[in-house]
Amino acid sequence: MYNIKRSPWVLHYDGSSCNGCDIEVLACLTPVYDAERFGIVNTGDPMQADILLITGGINSQNAAVVKQLYEQMPRPKVVAAIGVCACTGGVFKDCYNILGGVDKVIPVDVYVPGCAARPQAIIDGIVKACDIFQQRLAEHEQMIKKNKTAKEG
Amino acid sequence: MKTKIISVIAYIILAPIIGGLLDGIDRKISARMQRRVGPPLLQPFYDLGKLFNKQVIVVRSSQSFLLLCYLIFMIITGAMLYAGVDLLMCMFVLSTAAMFLYFAACVTSSPYSTIGASRELIQIMAYEPAVLLTCVGFYLVSGSFEVSDIAFGKFSDIIYLPGVFLAYIFILTIKMRKSPFDISTSHHPNQEIVKGITSEMGARNLAFFTLTEWYENVFLLSVLALFITNRSPVSFLAAVIVILVVYFLEILIDNCSARIKYFDMVKLAWAVTVVLAGSNIWILMLVKQNIVN
Predict the structure, then answer these.
(1) How many whole angstroms separate alpha carbon A49 and alpha carbon B203?
(2) What's the pLDDT score for residue B125?
């Protein structure tokens, strides 16, 4: 099987974040932390993305957007929740408009806690997501095989 | 005849490898210029392999066909150059390939890729005069449009065409979509038109696009080599060195400039074309009526 771990392209979506985690996510790509050495590229297009990074909690308005972004991404795909708000809702958990963490709408694979999450932790999270990304490829290939045999049968 | 077939086959096989390596070198040098470690040298190949392994989601199924045409026409362009046929014809086939890219971006009806596509047309408008003048310049010096006559002349064409050479290097930046002329799409993230012309191209389709870009870069740099080469084999070595220097300059310009407005690009490109290439050809026509290389 092809080693796709070496080329994780990330899509960054800002839920209802305070922008703290967003700045840290972008800091990962700056020369200081240089996430590109792992082949990480920040792409703006969900159709080209492999890992979805979501910062901030889910509210009633962005739930549909997050779902759509997730559905537009081609398999294999991984979701990482960055920051405590994306994990559980954080300090905004009890607000009237907050539904909770990202896992309320889409399946989340990696949780990176922190307020704000540190760049080291975010890169660590993405590297962890890469392993899951490789597993997903195996599942994806099995699914294709299954569909093929089902069609032929 | 035999050597022509061999060189065409060599182009078809080696161009993506060389193009990918150049892309890798580009990313590595860019990273070093920004004091980063940067991705591995073979990163572009890893990316390509991953793109072929992903699930194919297309908005319109015709997009895959159009992008495949873009790739095939680009391969034909380079193959024609290495077969030593008419340079003018090569450039026309190149424009045909660019049209397929335009349509491939338009069929998705995404606003971002449509903006990218129309900007791509403006880019074509900006660089096409210089491309045509390059062909005319080669004709004036060699007395022929045939690539085999241009490449194996008595002396290097750059002696008579320094202005055209500089104009060609200038439009190379537009052709390679590098800053400050990366207006239709960008290799760098977070742009105002998302990914421009490549928005909505995912998985295999983006892989076709990337592969075509590598073929195109090798073709464009090969045309650059036509300025340098002559009958002696030493000139071919010189051509490789000139190509590497020019490619480094492109990376340098890419890293130290921000993108400009599309209208400024057209004005600048046309001014450079008229002043450098135009005056070069005009002087050439005045001084020497018939130089046969």
Answers:
(1) 9
(2) 92
Q: What is the pLDDT of residues A84-141, one digit of tens each?
A: 999 998 899 899 989 988 999 999 999 999 988 999 999 999 999 999 999 988 888 8
Global pTM exceeds 0.90: yes
- Rg of chain B in Å (alpha carbons): 19
Q: What is the pLDDT of residues B97-131, one digit of tens each?
A: 999 999 999 898 888 888 889 999 999 999 999 99
CB-facing half-sphere around the CA of B123: CA atoms within 13 A: 29
Distance CA B213, CA B193 (A): 20
Name the residue among A6, A37, A45 with its Cβ closest to that of B37: A37
Per the CB < 8 A criterion, the answer to whether B182 and B105 are in contact is: no
Contact between A79 and A39 (Cβ < 8 Å): no
Does residue A78 contact residue A136 with C-beta atoms inside 8 Å? Answer: yes
Q: Tokens 């890798």 correspond to what residue?
A: B24
- Beta partners for residue A10, in sequence order: A42, A51
What are the structural domains of chain A? 4-152 (3.40.50.12280)
Residue B202 to residue A48, Cβ atoms within 8 A: yes
Residue among A25, A90, A82 nearest A59 (CA): A90
Could you give the CA distance from residue B256 to residue B175 in angstroms, rounded to a whole number?
A: 18
Residues in chain A with CB shorter than 8 Å from the CB of B113 are none
Question: Which helix (H) or strand (E) covers residue A41, if one does?
Answer: strand A41-42
| Interface residues from chain A to B (CB-CB < 8 Å) | 2-4, 6-7, 9, 29, 31, 34, 36-39, 41-45, 47-48, 50, 72, 74-76, 137, 140
Exposed (0-12), middle (13-18) or buried (19+): which is B165, by Cβ within 10 Å? Answer: buried
Secondary structure percentages of chain B, helix, strand, coil, to 5: 75, 0, 25
What is the C-alpha to C-alpha distance for residues B265 and B124, in angstroms, rounded to an integer?
11
Encode pLDDT of B165-197 as tens digits. Answer: 999 999 999 998 888 888 888 776 656 777 888
| Residue A117 host element (H or E) | none
- What number is the ipTM of this complex? 0.90
